Amino acid sequence: MFDGLLQYDLGAGVEVFSTQRDAALPYPVIQGHQVHDCKVAVVDRPDLTREDLEGYDAFVTNMPGVAIGVRTADCIPVLLYDPVKRVVAAVHAGWKGTVLHISQKAIHVMNLRFGCNPADMRAVLGPGIGPASFQVGEEVAEHFKQADFPIDQIWSFQGAGDGSPMSGGHHIDLWKANQWLLEQAGISKENIQVSAIDTYTTEAYFSARREGFQCGRIINAIKLIPL
Predict the structure, then answer these.
(1) How many domains are there within the chain?
(2) What is the extent of the structural domain holding 87?
(3) pLDDT tens digit sequence for 185-201
(4) How many CB atoms lie under 10 A from the CB of residue 33?
(5) What burial class does residue 55 get, using C-beta atoms within 10 Å of its C-beta: 0-12 exposed, 13-18 middle, 19+ buried?
(6) How far apart are CA 73 and CA 219, in angstroms?
(7) Are 74 and 92 in contact (CB under 8 A)?
(8) Does residue 158 fall inside a structural domain?
């Protein structure tokens, strides 16, 4: 479709992509001012600005032709599509948002506002920091334990390490954590795609851990195609 975009196939009626480094957006994408929290906004008009969406990390819309998206640079983008009710969502799931179950909160809003059934939904987990690269402190691992995640599936302790970056210590698999949230909400495992692109080790994508917080951002967007 466009150069510099990683495109996903969630079926007819929707366009879904993540930008690679220095790619130009093919059209405007409504985004919020993300704060690593779990608030979900319903986008109900096409002229909403980042200032209008201050403090939101997930977005839901049923407006055809209006792209919504989230900005990431190691955090996990979760893009959701209900082809039955024709509703989409874009979710920014860093470790804090994941612990707060933000993707489940977005699904709840889709159900509450538009009658979406998770059994009908399809999802993509886009590029983000992979488990081998996401070394965390013990306190972060403890947050996941306290939030009732299946810790043996998403956490590992790799000992003292060999001195290379990200070796040893505690590691969290944010893809598995978010996939677990989606499955617990009722989305079929067969309807969940995981990109498995580690932004920390893949220079085609921005990584705050590799480049510093002031680096650029990946735009992860989803748009209903007008019928």
Answers:
(1) 1
(2) 5-128+187-224
(3) 999 999 999 999 999 99
(4) 14
(5) exposed
(6) 9
(7) no
(8) no
Q: Flag whether 156 is in a domain.
A: no
Asked whether residue 141 is assigned to any structural domain, the reply reads no
H or E stretch covering 144: helix 138-146
In a domain, 219, yes or no: yes
Q: Are 211 and 69 in contact (CB under 8 A)?
A: no
The predicted-structure confidence for 167-184, as pLDDT tens digits, reads as follows 999 999 999 999 999 999
- Residue 160 is predicted with a pLDDT of 87
* pLDDT value of position 180: 98
Mean pLDDT of 67-71: 98
Whether the CB-CB separation of 177 and 98 falls below 8 Å is answered with yes
Output Rg (C-alpha) for the chain, integer angstroms: 17
Confidence of residue 161 (pLDDT cuts 50, 70, 90): confident
The CATH number linked to 69 is: 3.60.140.10
Q: Is it the case that residue 226 has pLDDT exceeding 60?
A: yes
Structure tokens at 214: 């002031």
